[in-house]
Amino acid sequence: MPTLGADMSVGILSSWLKKPGDTVQRGDIIAVVHTDKADVEVETFASGVIERMLVEPGSEVPVGTPLAVIRESGEAEPTAASEQEARLMISPSARELAHELGVDPAEVRGSGPGGRIQRKDVEAAAAARDPARPPPSAPRPAVAPQAPAAAPSADDRGAAMRRAIGAAMSRSKREIPHFYLGHTIDLSRAMSWLTESNVHRSVSERLLHGVLLLKAVALALRVVPELNATWQGDEVVRHDDVNIGVAIALRGGGLVAPAIRHTDELSLDELMHAFRDLVTRARRYSLRSSEISAPTITVTSLGERTVDTVFGVIFPPQVAIVGFGAVVERLWVSDGQVLPCPVVSVSLSADHRVTDGHRASAFLVALDRLLQEPEEL
Amino acid sequence: MYSAAKIHGFLHLYIGEEAVAVGVLQALTPDDAIVATYREHGQALARGVPAASLMAEMFGKANGSSRGRGGSMHIFDLARRFYGGYAIVGGGLPVAVGLALADRLSGREGRLTACFFGDGAVAEGEFHESLNLAALWELPVLFLCENNLYAMGTPIRQELAQPDISLRAESYGIPAEPVDGMDVIAVEEAARRAAIQVRRTGAPLFLELRTYRFRAHSMADPDLYRTKDEIGDWRQRDPIALLEARLREAKLIADDDVSALESDVAAELDHAVGVAEAGPFEPVEDLTKDVYGRSAQ
Amino acid sequence: MTDDQIREGVLRVLAGIVPGADLTALRPDLGLRDQLDIDSMDYLNLAIGIHEELQVDIPESAYDQLETLDDFVRYLAERTSGST
Amino acid sequence: MSVQLAGGSSRRVRLTYREAVRAGLRHALSADDRVFLMGEDVGSYGGAFAVSLGLLDEFGPERIRNTPLSESAFVGAGIGAALGGMRPIVEVMTINFSLLALDQIVNNAATLRYMSGGQLEVPLVVRMATGGGRQLAAQHAHSLEVWYAHVPGIKALAPATVEDARGMLLAALDDPDPVFIFEHATLYPLEGEVDEEPRPVDICRASVRREGGDVTLVTYGGSLAACLAAADDLADEGIEAEVVDLRTLRPLDMDTVLVSLGKTHHAAIVDEGWKTGSLAGEVSAQIMERGFDLLDWPVQRVCSAEVPIPYAKHLEDAALPSRERVAATVREMLV
Questions:
Q1: Which of A151, B174, B234, D20 has a C-alpha 20 to 30 A away from that of A366?
Q2: What sign has the CA pseudo-torsion A280, A283, A284, A288?
Q3: Complex confidence, ipTM
Q4: Does B287 touch chain D (CB under 8 A)?
Q5: Site from D199, D261, D293, D332 to mutate, A interface, most A CB atoms within 10 angstroms
Q6: Closest-CA residue to C22 (of A354, B94, B288)
Q7: Are residues D146 and D215 both part of a single domain?
Q8: In a domain, A162, yes or no
Q9: What is the C-alpha to C-alpha distance for residues A321 and A312, in angstroms, rounded to an integer?
Q10: Catalytic residue check, D71
Q11: How does pLDDT run across A230-266, given as a tens digit for each residue?
Q12: Is C82 touching A (CB cutoff 8 A)?
């Protein structure tokens, strides 16, 4: 409804001079509008085919109300079947995966009922597009179930081994003879290095102190490798890969500890990126099964505003868990002076069948030493 | 207040039955527990629940006796062991039995649980089950049936095949006694005797308090099922008028005492309305508060 | 940028970080950490979101004066008043 | 793989589900004299499912109280006793008879804290046997846990293992609100190994009883066995099913379900209740609301046929959820 006078706010459509299906050119008169001053002919500025009228003759509509839909020449003919374009039948998870893998769903053939596109169709399309890259998770029934994600180094004896593990903590506490060691680490060098280096970083590249702790744990495991192991059947298998499970609290309560692979080989920036991505996806429940079953050790922390010390309960089939309390300001003797310093209390819960207090303390000492040289992490 | 739409939902007036609440409550101690029905304003006031807190509750305010959550049918006051109004007819009886059981099992002697209910409840299964259980386990419950002759719109003769309620109670081996529910002195005297016996023996007793409500079952009841004459006859024995006449006869009160009393009552009511109107509404953010004592961690 | 626009921007970023939280009942004078159960990672995402949404860079040093929604609006208002 | 532990935590013992509940009762009765047991034939008879056998001799008639057949009165008395400061455990023989006490449960137990503005507290535990599978026909085979899980103000638990049968009772006694424990009648003879020393267990988290990456089977109580059996069958065909035991029906721990769904993208919910208005329906709705983007296939439900449970064995087996129906449902999803 065009404004046909400065003070005009509404107009009455008195009659249509065209009908749906008519082709119109720019400037054609297509309707007559009645205003309190006069009956005025209305011209169209678009050329094309009138698809449908939106306003009935005789009705009063405010200025600016669209009166008719004109499909400009050259636009695709809408399929006769339905008003909107045909709905793409795709499962929500497949759509998410397509987005993740950069596959255009419209080009995927759906194998589900009624042609619904499923994850495996998207995976196949992604693989077909780039044969070099194997699909993220092996297609299902055709192949034997996934081998345990943490490729055991020494022991390749295992066929796909069914590990019936109840993940309940209470069971872990009862089956695994835990012993605990605590230690307090002066973080003044680490925190000042972090603050200093964050100043030069853009906000999206900013590091959290957590990544320093994760990297230190990963490197300390090279000093005490027996902590980086998992039970398989009745045997402990030590792993070369260091995949640290990061305990993430879910919003409504509940905890999950997916792994960051090769934590020891990642740079602090790569580690921060992986950490941030993991937390985001965990809280959207979209973790990959490989991530959940991959950790060779777990690190847990209850965050800033909480307790000084946390003693973790080991996640079976792992053999250790490192717990960080909150970083707090404490009076601390360093180089003979008593100064207020940021410190963190770290705990190690370990499986008595696999290691002992002496080795466990060697791990915590190594961790401490690594955190005194943050620039090396 | 109700007609001024300050009070909503159901409201069951107690006018006419005052002698029962006042008489019985005189015989109870602070250690006794009380379980009542949705017509419990009389019992609550007689127990000492402040009128302001009742009025605020009926205004739905946070300073009401149940923080505006219960309304007129659900007045609670734990400090005064007033375990509330129950809107399901007969719903309170098993709870009263349980309270008495708790006192028994924790060795708290010399206590009773007073359980008020109407003649309507006598037809409920819970009446049968509760009296049987209290008698079987010999629990200190004082069952108080306010027989106002009507279960909402149904006269008692069309409600109970055996309308002699005291007789029914005795069938469970519980001594029962009918009492003139319009005479507060008679009620108080009977209640005192019963309470002393229950406290002493620990076994239940039953009083059938014959009374009458001058107003309809509730504000929503057109009260067509009773004749004006019948209501008129009972009004002759208005419990408050009866008491006033006796006190005057005994020269215990005179005109100025009566007017002083009336102005005190009026003042207390105004105060109550003031407190209710000034009271805050509970913030909507607290909607889910107190559903559980300890929400799932 | 008016205070309301800033507040709306911050709430939009928060909605992305705490999907499903009822932000309408958020008290602007109470700490965000307690009301929304958010941790240092969420605070970092908040800083990144605000940088993208309102083009203001919040240095780490400013974190401890930014506890409530009002703090954020006040802090950002000072830094965006120059640009409108 | 439980290893006999030297020293440290207590010795392991082998118990049946029924003995585990009894151990929980005995532990609670000895530890706290506010605790007492009330129910039909819980005394000299020892309980319809022999759970309270021997407790009368040990704790006496005051604390092991046989009740007349008055469900509304003795459940209501349990509520009153809880109000009066006791810690009652009421045994309603089966969920089928609990229908007679629903008024006391829904109108009193669940509402008194809220309706009194937070003044009153009802720390009551009610246990009842539930479920079919023993050829007792329609009136003795109901699975109506969802009726209780529907009501805010009470908690509903479904112990499916020997440890939960004992531990949940102790946790429920520690809870300030009414807690209803549903013990599937076929579980009483189930054997399992637990620590000798009874301890309360968590009652707000589900538990992954079997890990797998291809499909999530969500279940509770008497249907756990069928799911684990189905998972074994499926494993032989290369399908790894993850079995999530809800353990608590109110509150529902959806996080554990969603984390699993995030891995498998396929969910089947196995629930002995009738499908219409079932707990399975509620879990499915919450998956749709909170985990929609994780779904690669519509959520499936395996429930009882919508019939009064029949007496004849072959009919009852056809009506109730079975390992075969669970496995078949999973195969359809992963074809």
A1: A151
A2: positive
A3: 0.69
A4: no
A5: D293
A6: B288
A7: no
A8: no
A9: 6
A10: yes
A11: 888 778 888 888 999 999 887 766 778 889 988 999 9
A12: no
Dump pLDDT digits (tens) for C15-64: 888 876 778 778 888 888 888 878 888 888 888 888 888 888 888 888 88
Q: What single string gives the DSSP state of each residue in A350-370?
A: EETTT--HHHHHHHHHHHHHH
DSSP for residue A115: G
B56: distance to nearest CA of chain D, Å? Answer: 13
Structure tokens at D153: 């103000």
Asked whether residue B291 is domain-assigned, the answer is: no
Which candidate from A251, A275, A279 shows the least CB-CB separation from C37?
A: A251
Candidates D257, D260, D296, D299: best to mutate against A (most CBs of A within 10 A) is D296
Q: Please state, in angstroms and rounded to a whole number, the distance separating the CA atoms of residues B272 and A26.
A: 77
Say how far apart CA A192 and CA A175 lie, in whole Å: 42
Cα separation, B18 vs B41, in Å, equals 10
Cα D111 to Cα D152: distance, rounded to the nearest angstrom: 8
- A320 and A355 fall within a common domain: yes
CATH number reported for the structural domain that contains residue C48 in this entry: 1.10.1200.10
B120 interface with D at CB cutoff 8 Å: no
Alpha carbons D294 and D288: distance in angstroms, whole number: 9
Both D241 and D167 in one domain: the answer is: no
Contacts of A249 in chain C (CB under 8 A): 39
Final residue belonging to a domain, choices D172, D195, D218 = D195
CATH of the domain at D172: 3.40.50.970
Owner of token pair 């007045």: B75
The pLDDT confidence band at residue A84, using thresholds 50, 70 and 90, is: very low
Among D34, D36, D72, beta carbon nearest to B125: D72
Range of the structural domain that residue D305 is part of = 207-333
Classify A109 as helix, strand or coil: coil
Active-site option among D140, D142, D184, D266: D140
CATH number at residue B198: 3.40.50.970
| Domains identified in chain D, total number | 2
Whichever domain contains A34, its CATH number is 2.40.50.100
| C68 interface with A at CB cutoff 8 Å | no
